[in-house]
Each structure stands twice: as C-alpha cells, then as structure tokens.
Amino acid sequence: MVRAVVVDDERLAREELETLLAETGEFTVVGSCGNAVQAIRTIKSTRPDVVFLDIQMPKVDGLKLVSMIDEEIMPCVVFVTAYDDYAVQAFEKNAIDYLIKPVQPDRLARATARLSRFLGEGRRPTYDSPLIDRIPCMGSKSIRLIDTSEVEFVRSSESGVYLVTAKGEFLTELTLMVLEGKTQHLVRCHKQFLVNLNQIDEIIRQDPSSALLKTRSGNHVPVSRRFLGHLKETLGI
Prior knowledge:
Layout: E1 2-7, H1 11-24, E2 27-33, H2 36-46, E3 50-54, H3 62-67, E4 76-81, H4 84-92, E5 97-100, H5 105-120, E6 134-138, E7 143-147, E8 151-157, E9 160-165, E10 168-172, H6 176-182, E11 186-190, E12 193-196, E13 200-207, E14 210-215, E15 220-223, H7 225-235
Parallel strand pairs: 1-2, 1-3, 3-4, 4-5
Antiparallel strand pairs: 6-7, 8-9, 8-12, 9-10, 11-12, 13-14, 14-15
C-alpha cells in the first residue's frame, strides 16, 4: 500500500479525496492536514510515500510548502488545484502529476499509475521550489509568518527549532537544514545555530578558533571552529 498524506485547507475537499484514495485500494492515508505547519509536522513524523497537496492555501501555499520539506524525507508530490494554470505551474515544479478539482476517479487512476511507475523505479523526488521569505510558526491559535529579514538567528535544541527576533522567540517546524538551504541570508555558524548575515552587529573573538556574534538587538550567537572560516569568507573578512 502507498502511504499518503492529504493537505488541503478545506475539510470537505480533504474528506472527498481521502474517500477516493481509499476506494482505489492502493493507498493508506496516514495523515490529513489543513495547513502548512500541520503538514510539515505530519510529513516529518509519518514519512509518507506521496503527498496530495492543494496549491491554493492561505498563509503558505502548496508550492511554497514544498520548499519547507527536508530533502532527505521528501515524498512524491501530486498537486491538487481548481485551476488549469496552477496545474502548469505544478508540472514546472516537477510534480509527479496534478489533479483538477473536483477530482475524478478516472483521472486519479492515471495519476496513481504514474506514481506507481515512479515509486517502482526507486528514484528520489526533487523539486525546483522557491526560496523561503516568510517562515511559518505555530501560535496558540494561529499560524504566524515571520519575515526572514526579521530573524536575527535560529537555534535548535531538544525542545525544537526557534527563530529569534528582536520581538522574541518563535517555534517553527522547519529544520536548520531547510532554513539554511532555502533562505537567502541565514547561514550556519554552529552545529545548532544559524545567523542572519544582515543582523550581525559585531564579531567578538574569544580565541583563535571561536567567536561570538553580537546581533543588532544585543543577542549573542556562538561561532564554532568548524564554521568560523566559512563565516569569515562569506562576510569578506
């Protein structure tokens, strides 16, 4: 059975697609998500073979959501949309296939056949996804989007990954690897830290092999020996 996650902000649309998938006898739905944060968390925990992903969602659309998934666990993606022009975008992003709403059983069958061939070849899916400019963070009752320009640094701990800004800290489901690879100014300075190059106010040398970075709001970020040389080269010093 192919393990699938369905992502759509409309509950009825999710339920209809889940029913169609079950009727094929070829899928096990291991997750059903209504927003990007739920989707990222579910994909990380369930490691599905395929995600049926609605393109048009509020806050973070389907195309941007693909940018936020770790390449190591990247599932196949079948985009779902109500408009043909979005289907063209889906193929440009190297999706396995796309489905037009309302999804028809015969069209789903063709997508399933295409998906089965891809999975049978054992290839790892890759997608030409856009850079992340706003990072989703889950608040108590909503999703908050933090502009990457506002992030001073990112820290990782056992409790999760946190964006640190002048206004406070925000928990995100995105990993350091994704944030490092899919944002413009966040670079690695330590195994557990990324720093925004545009937020560095001062470099404080501790010894020949390590340093502290002082950000514009006065926060301090460690730089380890492993990343000090690359950081200096990136800053041109």
